[in-house]
């Protein structure tokens, strides 16, 4: 029987020692917000870290007491009796540094000025996120994770964990991700960033001081991104060419159902997400490339890894296609790593990794069942 983890409460950890980032920027202190589900065993051997994607957060599973509809973004996967079973594992979700859900980010107060960081907040990278997650693990007394798991940008973090801390990860799941972005992916991210930065209310990233939000730009960025998260077949099956009013109205307002859907998603996103965080996260995506310091040789870059891997892709995911997952698979195999690979038929596109797809969840359940704690 599967159930929810129920009501959950976020926690926070404050770090007072300065953090030097890959960009050269320095944070004098910072906070990480996180949630945990399940119980850490006596041996501290059953901890699983969940790394979130671009617009995700620490709220992976369960609901908040004051908001019954606030279900965690991976609640269908994490919980008692679910593929990532909290009866067996102690699961941790962390809001990345630079985020907008409680961890220190651009909207946080800069202690040197007493004002929001805004445009002064330094660039952060996947490598920086992993280092701060490792510090949180130290604080929680976790020397080694049973597994580090993530989808999309979260999958890149899981991969980086195996490279930066090879002796602290037993298993790693890299889902709907890639070892580095293609030029097309970088291009989509740049269009989204330009939509935000071109908004008159952006004010060079210091919109907090003006009491405004670059809502239009953030909305457009989300609309562009959302198109790439869905497959053509899924979009066609759900919306097709359906007209909202049944007939053509010949105006610039919403006519097609797909237009209505995209505007709704854009409006909803712009109401709760921070524009500067969006910029930082897309740049972190662009910069991630473990092979860069190895002359582009991915096999050489992954030679440090010691974990056993699950690499999973989805047939209709054209933003992080199965070909990119196989690129990672082959590089790991060339290094003699133990790798399970699943190419899952799911019509939903990139967003498949968030869904309760039977084949996908069967793969995840079987893989987690193999992990001894």
Fill in the keyword field for this structure.
single chain, 373 residues, alpha/beta, eight-stranded mixed beta sheet, 10 helices, 32% helix, globular
Q: How would you characterize this protein structure?
A:
The chain has 373 residues and is of the alpha/beta class. Helix content is 32%, strand content 17%. The strands form 4 sheets. The chain has an 8-stranded mixed sheet, with helices on both faces. Strands 2-3 form a two-stranded antiparallel sheet. The protein is globular, with a radius of gyration of 20 Å.
Q: How would you sum up the global shape?
A: globular
Instruction: Measure the end-to-end span.
Output: 21 Å
Query: Which strands sit side by side, in order, in the main sheet?
Result: 1-4-8-5-11-12-13-14
Give the averaged pLDDT, no decimals. 96
Main sheet summary: 8 strands, mixed
Q: How many E-type strands?
A: 14
**What's the quaternary structure here?**
single chain
Count of helix runs? 10
Structural class: alpha/beta
Briefly say what this structure is.
With 373 residues, this protein is α/β, with parallel strands linked by helices. The chain contains 10 helices and 14 strands.
Helix/strand layout:
Layout: E1 11-15, E2 19-20, E3 26-27, E4 30-37, E5 47-51, E6 78-79, E7 84-85, E8 90-94, E9 109-110, E10 115-116, H1 126-139, E11 145-151, H2 153-164, E12 169-175, H3 183-197, H4 215-229, H5 232-238, H6 257-270, H7 275-287, H8 298-301, E13 308-314, H9 322-334, E14 339-344, H10 358-370
Parallel strand pairs: 5-8, 5-11, 6-7, 11-12, 12-13, 13-14
Antiparallel strand pairs: 1-4, 2-3, 4-8, 9-10
């Amino acid at each position: 029987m599967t159930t929810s983890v129920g009501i959950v409460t976020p926690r926070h950890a404050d770090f007072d020692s300065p953090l030097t980032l890959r960009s050269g920027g320095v944070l004098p202190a910072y906070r990480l917000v996180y949630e945990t589900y399940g119980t850490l065993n006596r041996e501290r051997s059953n901890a699983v870290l969940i790394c979130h994607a671009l617009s995700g957060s620490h709220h992976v599973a369960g609901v908040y007491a004051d908001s019954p509809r606030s279900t965690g973004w991976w609640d269908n996967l994490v919980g008692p009796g679910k593929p990532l079973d909290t009866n067996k594992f102690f699961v941790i979700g962390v809001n990345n540094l630079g985020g907008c859900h409680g961890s220190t980010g651009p909207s946080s107060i800069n202690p040197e000025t007493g004002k929001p960081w805004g445009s002064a907040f330094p660039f952060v990278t996947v490598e920086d996120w992993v280092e701060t997650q490792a510090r949180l693990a130290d604080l929680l007394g976790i020397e080694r994770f049973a597994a580090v798991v993530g989808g999309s940008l979260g999958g890149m973090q899981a991969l980086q964990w195996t490279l930066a801390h090879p002796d602290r990860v037993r298993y790693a799941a890299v889902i709907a991700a890639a070892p580095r972005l293609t030029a097309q992916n970088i291009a989509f991210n740049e269009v989204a960033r330009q939509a935000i930065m071109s908004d008159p209310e952006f004010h060079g990233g210091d919109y907090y001081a003006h009491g405004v939000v670059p809502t239009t730009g953030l909305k457009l960025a989300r609309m562009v991104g959302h198109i790439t998260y869905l497959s053509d077949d899924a979009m066609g099956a759900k919306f097709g060419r359906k007209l909202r009013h049944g007939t053509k109205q010949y105006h610039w307002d919403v006519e097609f159902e797909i237009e209505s859907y995209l505007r709704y998603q854009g409006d909803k996103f712009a109401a709760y997400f921070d524009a500067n965080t969006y910029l930082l996260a897309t740049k972190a995506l662009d910069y991630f490339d473990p092979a860069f310091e190895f002359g582009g040789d991915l096999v050489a870059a992954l030679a440090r890894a010691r974990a056993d891997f699950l690499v999973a892709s989805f047939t209709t995911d054209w933003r992080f296609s199965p070909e990119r997952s196989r690129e990672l698979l082959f590089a790991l195999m060339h290094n003699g790593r133990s790798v399970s690979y699943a190419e899952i038929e799911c019509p939903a596109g990139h967003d498949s990794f968030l869904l309760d797809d039977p084949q996908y969840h069967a793969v995840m359940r079987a893989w987690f069942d193999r992990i001894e704690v």
